UniProtKB/TrEMBL annotation:
Region entry Disordered, spans: 1-23
Lineage: Eukaryota, Viridiplantae, Streptophyta, Embryophyta, Tracheophyta
Entry EC number(s): 2.8.2.-
Top EC class for this record: transferase
Protein name: Sulfotransferase
């Protein structure tokens, strides 16, 4: 990758491409009408807006409006690289790794924009940053991020054939990470979160923003089986065990493999170390900086960092709660080929409904 392919990352806001005007109020009102007809459930807060069920998944009103707008208006390109995850499955880490890989020809780890901007400000979030002003993007940027389930992605993404990187994680750690994260966000907004036990029951019923979690994972896994060359399917725990291997795998899939000279100079190792949890979380920008600074949506970057540990659920859930989540995940995914039962690899003759 030459330097021109990532020089866009230092452009001023007024240099970005503008092709279409923002979505009009009438369109937003249309989304409100759609939302008024949808099933609702309690959110993970004692007093907050409900979650809406749309196309089989649950969303806050804010995210759902963004998704509806993206479905109507977002124009994907074949060169886009979409980083996808459910909430709290390694999104921040994946963004940092992909961004460092993509920009390495212009910035080494001592000058990378990640030193002054959090990962979430380096890569646009589809249903927030691009949904309302869908063409307001630097057209040289290939990296995008979303939490949207596969079956609800904008049609242009499917039609474009663009590459998708998906990361998933043990649901027990997903629940714990989500509960702490949601609690911080709600406190920032002035709301009180539900007790962990109540939130756990909602999670087990699949009721959380962008949930059910297992359906989110399953949708992208099925797409991976159908389009193996277009979708890279990663697991957080495996990446933790051998990050260097997966950094090289990610770079190759993105179309920016490390050259022999880069291998000799340890570039992949440097990116691996630069983007590890300890280093990222201790960067000053992630300790005291803000995401979307100088906007009404500004939020502290440190909210996105907690522990990043595999198995932290054991410090918060009972063995019975852990077994319950394992059982749900096994029941939902055992016929997919993604996970095997404890006794057999092949799918049983009749899959549970």
């Amino acid at each position: 990758m030459d330097s021109s392919s990532s020089s866009h990352l230092l452009k001023n806001e007024d240099e970005k491409v503008h092709e279409d005007p923002p979505i009009k109020d009438a369109t937003v009102n249309k989304y409100g009408e759609i939302m008024s007809t949808l099933p609702r459930e309690k959110d993970w807060a004692k007093s907050c807006d409900d979650l809406y069920q749309y196309q089989g998944f649950w969303y806050t009103g804010f995210f759902l409006e963004g998704i509806l707008s993206a479905q109507d208006h977002f124009k994907a390109r074949s060169t886009d690289i979409l980083l996808v995850s459910c909430m709290k499955t390694g999104t921040t880490w994946l963004k940092a790794l992909a961004f460092a890989i993509f920009t390495r020809a212009s910035f080494d780890t001592s000058s990378n924009p990640l030193l002054s901007k959090g990962p979430h400000d380096c890569i646009p979030f589809l249903e927030v940053d691009l949904a309302q002003e869908y063409s307001r993007r630097d057209m040289e940027i290939q990296l995008l991020n979303t939490h949207i389930p596969y079956t609800s992605l904008p049609k242009s993404i499917i039609d474009s054939g663009c590459k998708i990187v998906y990361i998933w994680r043990d649901p027990k750690d997903v629940f714990i990470s989500t509960w702490f994260y949601v609690g911080k966000v709600l406190a920032f907004m002035g709301f009180e979160p539900l007790p962990m036990e109540e939130s756990f029951e909602l999670f087990c019923r699949g009721i959380l923003t962008y949930g059910p979690y297992w359906d989110h994972v399953l949708g992208y896994w099925k797409a991976k089986l159908e389009f193996p060359d277009r979708i890279l399917f990663l697991k957080y725990e495996e990446m933790q065990k051998d990050t260097y291997f997966y950094v090289k795998k990610l770079a190759e899939f993105m179309g920016y493999p490390f050259t022999s000279l880069e291998e000799e100079n340890g570039v992949a190792h440097k990116i691996t170390e630069f983007c590890n949890f300890e280093n990222l979380s201790n960067l000053q920008v992630n300790k005291s900086g803000k995401h979307r600074e100088n906007t009404p949506m500004a939020i502290d970057n440190n909210i996105f960092f907690r522990k990043g540990k595999v198995g932290d659920w054991e410090n918060h859930l009972t063995p019975e709660m852990g077994a319950r989540l394992d059982g749900i995940m096994k029941h939902k995914l055992m016929c997919s080929g993604l996970i095997a039962s404890s006794h057999e690899i092949l799918c049983p003759p009749k899959c549970p409904k």
